């Protein structure tokens, strides 16, 4: 802790130096954990994020007028509702018949009329409020700097007006559940401003009866904002919210009028904001927002600003400091972050990859914690009342990608909200299975919202993705692999079994009796060049579409189910339950269609050898089995790898932020670190905002930031094939570095370092007492535990297998290193 305090003191000393100099003379901060800029944010996409899992804020850092945009994770449109449509299963055999006969449009239209959920769309995550501060300084600011310290979770701004230095620090406290803004100056009585707390109206769905807010003074030192969520799609807006600002001034005066709060001639000021809704869970909105807000203030009573700040930083660091990644620091690493993103296109800056990795972990800590909602399409940070794709949970790639860096990033607690959501989806998911498909178990498609609806939505071209819940179940299994905790496995086993049960009922034989396949099916959002597929008007969505996506047995479906069925059989054996059913599951799995190579040499996306209507589609659905799945492998299934590479080459290295992040992970699994690095640089150039948030072309989507963090880790260590493989896809530019505190499958905690592209040494802590299989490219391994040699067995792939004991630490040295 002393070391961390000294680091922070050095960093703050440096920032004080910034104010008196225009450039870094002697840099003294870690460019792997600090983002900084010479200008304030001019738009929301340039602001800096802070969050505690429940409350989020985007900080602009302007000198004359500060804007802090605020979010609360449960502020959504609508209220508890269901999209289940009774009796849809009655037409399922007819739909399946049309699909097998190649009458895709007839199948599409019948599915749309009888089997889609209702409403067809879902609810929206909304912006809560904005806090505006208008400052009294008349002169323009000079010597400006703003930054975000990922180590502390605090974003700050410093500038000078004449001879006075002003500073603001903003963070969100998890222990105290408040957004905190601290204002100080180098001279007494220099802090004066007017504050206004503003609600946000939904222009598309609001009227004064259903979407309103009121803002009133709250005593002499605060403001209060109340509101109600908007109606949408015929679902009454049942959410109520309340937000309050309290101001504590040191010196000076504080007063309120009808809508504003005024601070005059204070020495320092601390502004606290908290908010709550009446949301209890996906079917209960009976809480009292006012009582919740008052409880926050009661809990904070008597606490000083340093106590609140120190508790928040300590809480943040207990997550963030578990894992550290250091890559080589270049002279350009000390440039402002937006300049680094441009400069890396021509000059090596390895530590920028470390910064992106740390930023991904920072975002997960800020948007997904035990007891909160999972990270949605924008994490927790949303500026819009009608955000792109409603800022929901999209489970044909995006929600899953949000959690790709969680396990290796040593943030297992951050996965808990996702696990809870999957459990909650079983509620309507079991109703959908029965009514829409006539099956047991539970099913979930490609989208859900705060209310955990599970029926197909947005029309048949998207809604026939029946394996969204199955994909999520594979991530629940991955969570087990990193801990090997059997009590947790017992907890999720019914969830996995329910998903498997649905597909055991839903899978049908192909007309030739050769395979078991999903029908109807889709390869997410991609339109196949199937016979007769052509543009048409879709009556469900009211859109002109290039075709229909309906098919049978898409490659992603069968790869996901291959993983899920295999994981379920393993879980059944480990828990010694349901052996007879597990045997049937294993037998069904053997009848899945295998990967196939098409006439163009690429891995097929569909069971039929069809091309695609779009030249270079953003999704890589049929490569799920390579990453994040475990069906395709350079090592285990080399016969498919040429076809996988052909897909990647055909679609190129460009596309949206999350798509490029996925490509990084795919090339890592192909052991091509330099291609990964090339895509990473292109992502920074074209599909990342200045504060490293990812774009989905132009809208912000946080999934790409998470996916990039996962891609960085896949380049450094992989453990999905029963072995721990160090530096499997190291880019040549990342030739020196260290990684400490990462988790790998099998219940191990790993530290290691490398130089000139070669591992120097490694340390493993065995938390579960599993056998360890370690692959390092060069040298002979010497393994010791407590100073005593541990014998290992050399395997056919060059890895070494050795036994471990739970709680013991193992040191690995590389001998004959050349």
TrEMBL record:
EC class of the enzyme, as a word: hydrolase
MF (Gene Ontology): alpha-L-fucosidase activity
Occurrences of domain Glycosyl hydrolase family 95 N-terminal (ranges): 35-281
Domain Alpha fucosidase A-like C-terminal: 718-812
Keyword Signal: yes
Protein name: Alpha-L-fucosidase
UniProt keyword terms in alphabetical order: Glycosidase, Hydrolase, Signal
Pfam families given in the database record: Glyco_hyd_65N_2, Glyco_hydro_95_C, Glyco_hydro_95_cat
Top-rank taxon, per record: Bacteria
Residue intervals of the Glycosyl hydrolase family 95 catalytic domain: 304-716
EC number: 3.2.1.51
């Amino acid at each position: 802790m002393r070391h961390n305090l000294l680091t922070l003191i050095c960093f703050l000393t440096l920032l004080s130096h910034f104010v008196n100099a225009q450039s870094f003379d002697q840099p003294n901060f870690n460019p792997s954990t600090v983002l900084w800029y010479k200008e304030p944010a001019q738009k929301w996409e340039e602001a800096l994020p802070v969050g505690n899992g429940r409350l989020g804020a985007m900080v602009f850092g302007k000198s004359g007028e500060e804007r802090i945009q605020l979010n609360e994770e449960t502020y959504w449109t609508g209220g508890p509702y269901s999209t289940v449509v009774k009796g849809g299963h009655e037409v399922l055999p007819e739909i399946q018949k049309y699909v097998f006969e190649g009458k895709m449009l007839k199948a599409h239209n019948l599915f749309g009329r009888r089997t889609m959920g209702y409403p067809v769309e879902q609810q929206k995550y909304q912006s809560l409020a904005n806090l505006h501060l208008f400052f009294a300084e008349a002169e323009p600011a000079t010597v400006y700097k703003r930054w975000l310290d990922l180590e502390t979770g605090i974003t700050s701004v410093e500038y000078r007006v004449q001879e006075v230095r002003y500073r603001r620090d903003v963070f969100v406290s998890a222990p105290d559940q408040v957004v905190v803004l601290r204002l100080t100056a180098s001279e007494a009585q220099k802090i004066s401003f007017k504050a206004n707390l503003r609600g946000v109206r939904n222009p598309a769905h609001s009227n004064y009866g259903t979407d309103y807010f009121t803002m009133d003074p709250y005593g002499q030192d605060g403001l209060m904002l109340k509101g109600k969520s908007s109606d949408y799609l015929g679902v009454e807006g049942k959410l109520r919210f309340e937000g309050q600002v309290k101001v504590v001034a040191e010196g000076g005066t504080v007063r309120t009028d009808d809508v504003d709060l005024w601070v005059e001639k204070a020495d320092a000021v601390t502004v606290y904001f908290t908010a709550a809704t009446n949301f209890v869970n996906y079917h209960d909105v009976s809480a009292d927002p006012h009582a919740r807000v008052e409880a926050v203030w009661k809990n904070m009573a008597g606490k000083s600003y340093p106590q609140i700040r120190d508790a928040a930083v300590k809480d943040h660091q207990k997550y963030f400091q578990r894992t550290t990644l250091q890559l080589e620091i270049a002279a350009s690493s000390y440039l402002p972050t937006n300049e680094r993103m441009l400069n890396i296109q021509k000059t090596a800056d390895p530590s920028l990859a470390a910064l992106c990795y740390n930023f991904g972990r920072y975002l997960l800590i800020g948007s997904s914690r035990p007891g909160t909602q999972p990270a949605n399409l924008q994490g927790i940070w949303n500026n819009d009342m009608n955000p792109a794709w409603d800022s929901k949970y999209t489970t044909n790639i995006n929600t899953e990608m949000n959690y790709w860096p969680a396990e290796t990033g040593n943030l297992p607690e951050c996965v808990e909200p996702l696990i809870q959501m999957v459990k909650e989806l079983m509620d309507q998911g079991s109703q959908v299975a029965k009514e829409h498909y006539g099956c047991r178990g539970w099913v979930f498609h490609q989208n859900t919202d705060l209310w955990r609806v599970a029926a197909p939505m947005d029309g048949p071209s998207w809604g026939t993705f029946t394996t969204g819940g199955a994909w999520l179940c594979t991530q629940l299994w991955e969570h087990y692999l990193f801990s090997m905790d059997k009590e947790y496995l017992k907890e999720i086993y019914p969830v996995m079994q329910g998903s498997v049960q649905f597909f055991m009922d839903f899978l049908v034989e192909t007309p030739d009796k050769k395979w078991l396949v999903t029908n109807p099916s889709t390869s997410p959002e991609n339109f196949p060049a199937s016979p007769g597929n052509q543009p048409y008007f879709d009556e469900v969505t009211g859109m002109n579409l290039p075709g229909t996506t309906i098919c049978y047995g898409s490659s992603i479906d069968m790869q996901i189910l291959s993983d899920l069925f295999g994981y379920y059989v393993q879980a059944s054996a480990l828990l010694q339950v349901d052996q007879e059913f597990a045997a049937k599951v294993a037998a069904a799995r053997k009848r899945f269609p295998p990967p196939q190579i098409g006439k163009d040499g690429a891995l097929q996306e569909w069971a039929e050898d069809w091309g695609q209507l779009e030249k270079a589609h953003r999704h890589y659905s049929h490569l799920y089995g390579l990453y994040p799945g475990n069906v395709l492998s350079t090592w285990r299934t080399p016969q498919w790898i040429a076809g996988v590479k052909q897909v990647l080459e055909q679609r190129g290295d460009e596309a949206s932020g999350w798509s490029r992040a996925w490509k990084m992970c795919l090339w890592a699994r192909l052991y091509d670190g330099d291609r990964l690095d090339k895509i990473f640089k292109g992502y920074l150039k074209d599909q990342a905002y200045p504060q490293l948030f990812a774009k989905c072309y132009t809208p912000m989507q946080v999934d790409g930031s998470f996916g990039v963090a996962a891609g960085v880790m896949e380049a450094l260590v992989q453990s999905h094939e029963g072995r721990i493989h160090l530096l499997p896809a190291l880019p040549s530019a990342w030739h020196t570095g260290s990684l400490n505190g990462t988790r790998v499958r099998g219940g191990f905690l790993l530290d290691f370092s490398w130089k000139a592209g070669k591992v120097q040494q490694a340390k493993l802590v065995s938390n579960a007492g599993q056998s360890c299989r370690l692959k390092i490219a060069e040298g002979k391994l010497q393994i010791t535990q407590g100073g005593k040699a541990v014998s290992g067995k050399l395997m056919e792939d060059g890895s070494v297998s050795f036994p471990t004991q739970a709680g013991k630490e193992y040191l690995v040295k590389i001998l004959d290193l050349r």
